[in-house]
Structures are given as C-alpha cells and as structure tokens.
Amino acid sequence: MKNKFNTALYFIIVLGFIATAFSLYGTYTSVSKTHTLLTENIQIRQEKRGHLISMYNAARERSLTLLEMLDIEDAFELDDHDQILSSHATNFINARQAIMKLELSTQEEAQLTHLFTLTSANGVRQRKVADLLIDEQVTPAKQLLFSKTLPAQAELIKEMDNIIAQQTSALKKSLNMLNNNLLSSLQGLAYSSFAFFLLSIFTVFTLISRASRREAKILKENLDKEKLISKNMTHHATHDLLTSLWNRRYFEETLLQLKQQTKSHHTQHVLLYIDLDQFKIVNDTAGHDAGDDLIKEIANLLETCVRNTDTLARLGGDEFGVLLPNCSLKDGLTISENMRSKLDGFQFVWHEARFHIGSSIGVAILNHDSINENILSLADIACYNAKESGRNCVHVYEKDDHQVLKREVDMQTISTINKALESQRIHLYAQPISPIDTTSELRQYHEVLTRLADEEGNLISPDIFISAAERYGIMPKLDNYIISQTFNWLVKQSDKNIKLSINLSGASLSSTEFIKNFYTHFSHFELAHNVCFEITETTALRNFSDTIAFFKSLKKSGFNIALDDFGSGLASFEYLKNLPIDIVKIDGAFVKHIESSDIDVTMIKAIVEVSQKMGLQTVAEYVENEHILSILKTLHVDYAQGYVIAKPFPLSQLE
C-alpha cells in the first residue's frame, strides 16, 4: 500500500515536474515572444524618434541659414550659404524618406502627411527667400521671411515637437509594457510551480529579473546616450569649441532678438567689438598652440568684466563681441574701458617668452535710430578706427566721424573690387616707355596699368581702389589677377618681342601665400624675358633681405626688375649697389620740376651717372612736355614715360 502510495506520489511528482517543466517552457516562450515584439517596437520607435530629430535639426538650420544670408553681401558667400541651405533640405528629405519606410500607425501617417504638407509649402517660400537674396532683392526677401516663412517654420517646428513628444511617450509606454509583461509572467510562473520547485522557480525568477534589469539598463543607457549626444549637438551649435564662449551664430541671433526688443519697447543696448592688437605676433613667433592658449586666457579674462545679463562671444580668430542689453553709452564705455585696461595689463607667458597683447575696442549703440543699421558692422568700423588711432583704445561709432566715413567708403570700394574680380571688370591699360634717344638701339616697352569699372561701367581712380586694397589686405589677390591676365595676353600675341612692365605691391611681397603662388604658377613663364616687374624703392628697403631673395629668384627665372620711385627713400645709393636690378625709374617728384629746379637736375644727373656705372638703364616718369624731355636727353636718361609720350590706353589696342 505504501509502495503504491510512493509510486503514486512519485508519479504525481513526475507529473508535477513535467507540468512545471511545460509551465516553465510555456512561460518562457510567451516571455520571449513578448520581449521580441516589444524590443522590435522600441527599436522602431527609437528610429522614428531619431529621424524626427534629424528633420527638426534640418528645419531649424534652414531658418538660421536664411537669417545669416540677410547680412551677407558677397555673392560667393551667398552662394556657399545657398548650398548649405540645399544640404539641410536634403538632410530633411532623407530623414523623411527613412521614416516613411518604417511601420506607421494611422495616426502617425496622418501626422506625418500633415507635417510634409507644411514642409513642402514652406520649402517653396524658403527657396523664394534665398533666390531673392541671391538676386540682391533684400527688402522683399526680408518681408517674405519675417511675414510668412519664419511663422510657418515655427508652426512646422511646433508640429515636429509634438510628434517627437508623442514618440518619446510611446517609447516610455513600450518600456513599461515590457517590464509589466515580464513581471506578470514571473508571477504566474511562481504561482504554478511554487509547491513543487520553489528553489527552481526562485532561480528562474532571478535569471529573468536580471535579464529584465539588464535590458532596462541598456535601454536607459541608450536613451541617456541619445540625450547626451543631443545636448552636445545643441552646445556645439551655439558655443565656440576652443573657449566655450557663445559663438558668432548665437551672438547674431541674440543681436536680432535685441533689435526686435528695441523696435517694440524703444530700449537701448550697446555692442562692443574687441580685436586683439598683438595676436599675430604670438601666432607667428610662438606657434598656433600658443595662439590657442592665448585666446582661452583672454576669454577667461573677459568673462570677469561682463555682467550676468551680457552676452560674450568669440566672433572668430582674435575677435570677440559683447552685447550689453539695456545699457547706456556711459555704462558701456565704463565696461569697455575696464576691458581695455585689463587687457593692456595682461601679459601672456609662453615658455620663457612674455607678450604684451592689448586690444582695440569699437563701440556701437543699438537704439530706435540705428535699428535698421548693421550694428555689428558699425562696431567693426569703430574697432578699425581704434586701431587706426594708435591701437589700445576705445572708439565709439559716430555717423559724422571722418574716419568712419572713410572706412565706409573703403569697405564699399573693397566690395566693388571683389565684385570686379569675380566678374572680370578689372581692365588692363598700357602706357609706353620710350627711348629718349631715337637713334639708340633701345626698344620701346609698356607699363601695365589697372583700371576698375563699377557695375555701371564707371571707371574708379587707381588712387582710390589701390590704397583701399593695400589697407585691407587684398593687394596680393589683385596682383595675382593682373599677373595672370597679363601673362595670358602675352602668350596669345604673335609678336613675341612685346615687353611689358608689371607693378608689384609691398603687400604682395610681404605675403607668404602670394610668393608661394608666384613660384608655383608664374616663375616658369615661357616669355619671362618679355616681362619686367616694378617694385617701389620704399617697399624694397622696408623688406630688404626678403626683397633681395625674391629679386634673385626673379632674375634666375629670366624676368627683368625695375626699381620704381627711386630717390624717394633714405640711403638710396647705399642700397642700390646691393639690389640685383636692371632698371632705375627716377621718382617723378624730381622730374616734374626739372625746368625750374637746379637741385632736381643735379639729383637726376647723379642718379644717371651712378646707374650708368652699374650698367643699369634709367627711366624718367611724369614727363609732361617737350622741354622736360629735351633736358632729360642732355642728362642722358635712357627712357621717358608720361603724357608727352602717350597717355595710357587699353592693353588690347597694343595687339
């Protein structure tokens, strides 16, 4: 009887074990299927959310790019921003296509369809704004941007915020469902098998609990990582990577907000434009690592000078900007003078070297009277005038300031030069340089002169655009263009004996990039013996060692060299014997008054005698009448150049 009971008991135990095993297997299968479905659901929702965030960022960047384009005048830079605008549109479309490939609910399809309808409509408006800006129709572009495009974009972004929030909420619900399902399954497993396999159930429960926690931990880590990436992207979009200050984009956005506030509330604000005076010296002598450290130290110092409500940003390179909201000019000057004083007293130490930096600060007022002005540009002009006034000072922008007006004219001229270079409105002229003794074997040649035409075709005096180009560092670009155009013209001529003389500026000789470009593209010119380069005496003496090295390289390549405006510098004869030149062009100041000045006659006679001893040819400039020409002939000057010989004419007529 006992054996039967034991057998029955064993049988019941075996059945119980089998039942428990089946129960465990069934529970495990259900948990696995549920876990797989929920995990796939979570992955899909994560993908949807990621694509939506990409669409959100692309939409936001398009708006910011359009705002940037409002203040850009340069056609090439506008074109670059237009391409950036198109790339954001491409990113949006790619994200949209990716999300449409995923499994969507009816509600999601409806929301996305509505979103894409808004996007398509506003995309047309954004394209219209960009086209207007490229066509230089700024006013219609602004009206369309602020009246329709930006409000529509705001509605679009709001709609995307709602969809992203829904996806985030759905993701959290899926996680909760996963946890709830696992817990529910584990409870059922515990109830069904507790009487027989308490320890086994406890072990299974522990394993599954650990798996659940691990999955939840992984999901949480993924969400935290995604939040961190999003936070970093937001930070990088608005902050300077080197200093962690606000960047130029955020600065200009804040300035735009202050403009809107000024327009609606008639408030007054102050903008400071700070440029370090001696940053280039640190970069050139100590290297870029030292320059980066200097910028970071300056940023830390400037942060101690601003208020909590102020916006301090690095605008680029060694330039910083400060927005002082709700600030009077008096308080703004106090803050800017405090900054200037601290920067003046600051010493940058790099290894054993010490550098005094200093700064020039431009101040511009943003109020109801200046709301339509480019305030950042005005502060930049004031900063430039501070540098022109001797550096290490503060300058306030004033409309009637002579320096301000001159700077504005220069900036307009620079813009005209750049546009002329782009559209090839730089015209080459030629003026003959003729032998004075017509019986000599000397051959006539021509100096290449430059004329610039504005968009209406009016010629601008070289005295205006050359001086502006030298002050603002675009002479190397202009010289490169002139050399390239002249060489191209020479190659096309059937007469291979035409000789031309081209002027080189001091700015170009001081430019490492220009010298490198010259050696790369021009030093092996096939008609080098037909080209003479003119360099002024003052330029040669200012960069004497570099000039000699460059002259020797030119001579080695077959070019001739003329020393222009000879006699205008100091110790001219002392340096003349050391310069590897072919021609001496006598400064026109001596030539113009030769009829009435015995001193000028004596000076020219001395120059000619020294030049002849050295085997150099001489050219007299500014020869305006026959009497001057006859005097020069008695002094044995080789060549004459001036209106008595011929006025400049287009180079194309020399063909």
Q: What is the radius of gyration computed over CA atoms, rounded to a whole number of angstroms?
A: 38 Å
* CATH homology group of the largest domain: EAL domain
CATH architecture annotation of the largest domain: Alpha-Beta Barrel
Mean pLDDT: 83
What is the beta-strand fraction?
A: 5-15%
Order of strands, main sheet, comes to 8-9-11-12-13-14-15-16
The overall number of domains is 3
What oligomeric state best describes the polypeptide chains here? single chain
Given as residue ranges, the uncertain stretches (5+ residues, pLDDT < 50) are none
Rough outline: elongated
Q: What is the CATH third-level topology name of the largest domain?
A: TIM Barrel
Strands, total number: 17
Main sheet, how many strands, which sense, barrel? Answer: 8 strands, mixed, barrel
Q: How far do the termini sit from each other?
A: 133 Å
